[in-house]
Specification:
401 residues; globular; NnrS; 13 helices
């Protein structure tokens, strides 16, 4: 029970620092729109950026360890309050964490003017600090179920460190090892969290029976994703025959597709906060299927398959989740403004153009990149404009958070 004195302190606190989702979602979404805009301007040779490393490194690094990492941390450090019943990170601690994230983004953006070790050190601090803040309440209540998120954050830190190490030693394969495995880890997180919340959200939002999990199917789908990560992070995947890797990816894609189909996307079309999540989840088996075809010898580039998971699954899942979580945890009804449906459609367009249209007509890639980037920036720009007053003002019910 929150005491009166606690409520008085809460009311004096800057609303943006009352829960982690507030600064992390707002700044993360804003940064993604800015980063994609800058990336497009660099590709068009309109501007040059004094970034850390070079622009391709900056783009691949910042979309994962800048944008996606901010949203993951915001989600976890908000959800832990529901999981444990303890007050989650807020106030000064949240302000410090946010400042570390901001300094990391600034460091990467102007890294050509700074010592590389300083840029790397600040950037690498964010995820471990978030992991500690997440671990404290989980350990305090001895909650084992969600404790695995803590080592996942440290594994993401390892991937980040590999990117920095690969860049500074001139070993591109190590740099790729870090970025690629970060994608596998985030994909695994989406598969796990999506499997927990989508059946429940769908049942509650459509007033229909919940699709109960099939244990063996979940184990195959998630277990194969874990195996993909382990094989890649240890570089054993290079020693496994291509057809075996193709079979592994195909197995994971099929299991996760069956899992998703059981959640019945067709009953969600009238609820934007639901169909957007379903569409996002479907990009996971699509991306895995593209990797299966790539290993099987089809002319599919790693970039194309990768962007099915990043622009497709991550881009759509993040927008759908932050639109929902921002309402629920700010004490508002789960009824987004109609324009948010347009944002959901735009980020789908961004992914489809970047993956499928660009793949079919690669000779026009520059135009597809521009269209995809424009749709992405518009989608996340809409979120920022609509949700800014929600994320920066107190809950209407007066409760903490």
């Amino acid at each position: 029970m929150i005491q009166i004195t606690d409520l008085q302190i809460e009311q004096k606190m800057w609303p943006l620092l009352r829960q982690a989702f507030r600064p992390m979602f707002l700044l993360g979404a804003s940064f993604s729109a800015l980063a994609i805009t800058l990336w497009l301007l660099v590709l068009a040779q309109v501007i040059e950026l004094p970034v850390y490393g070079q622009t391709l490194f900056w783009h691949s690094h910042e979309m994962i360890f800048g944008f996606v990492a901010a949203i993951i941390v915001g989600f976890l450090l908000t959800a832990v309050q529901n999981w444990t019943g303890l007050r989650a990170t807020h106030g000064r601690a949240l302000g410090i964490l946010t400042a570390v994230w901001v300094l990391g983004r600034l460091g990467l953006l102007v890294g050509a003017w700074l010592p590389w070790w300083l840029v790397a050190a600040v950037d690498l601090l964010f995820l471990p600090l978030a992991a500690i803040l997440l671990a404290v309440p989980l350990i305090a209540v001895k909650q084992q179920r969600n404790l695995f998120f803590v080592p996942v954050l440290f594994l993401l830190t390892l991937c980040n460190a590999l990117m920095h190490f690969g860049l500074q030693t001139g070993q591109y394969e190590i740099q790729q090892l870090g970025s690629q495995n970060a994608v596998w880890l985030v994909t695994l997180l989406m598969a796990i969290v999506g499997g927990r919340v989508l059946p429940m959200f769908t049942a509650n939002g459509t007033m229909t029976p919940k699709a109960e999990p099939i244990v063996w199917l979940d184990r195959i789908g998630l277990g194969s994703l874990w195996l993909i990560f382990v094989l890649n992070i240890t570089n054993f995947s290079a020693m496994v025959p291509a057809l075996v890797m193709a079979l592994l990816f195909a197995t994971s894609a099929l299991a996760l597709a069956i899992r998703c189909a059981r959640w019945r996307i067709w009953i969600t079309w009238k609820v934007p906060l639901l169909w957007s999540l379903h569409v996002a989840y479907w990009f996971i088996p699509i991306g895995l299927a593209l990797y299966a075809l790539r290993y099987a010898g089809f002319p599919i580039t790693n970039s194309l398959a990768l962007h099915a998971l990043t622009a497709g699954a991550m881009g759509n899942m993040i927008l759908a989740m932050i639109a929902r979580v921002s309402l629920g945890h700010s004490g508002r009804a789960l009824q987004p403004k109609p324009i948010i449906s347009a944002a959901f459609m735009l980020v789908i367009v961004a992914a489809v153009v970047r993956v499928f249209v660009q793949g079919l007509w690669p000779e026009l890639s520059v135009y597809w990149y521009a269209l995809s980037a424009f749709a992405w920036v518009l989608a996340y720009g809409i979120y920022v404009l609509v949700y800014f007053p929600i994320l920066t003002t107190p809950r209407p019910d007066g409760r903490p958070g």
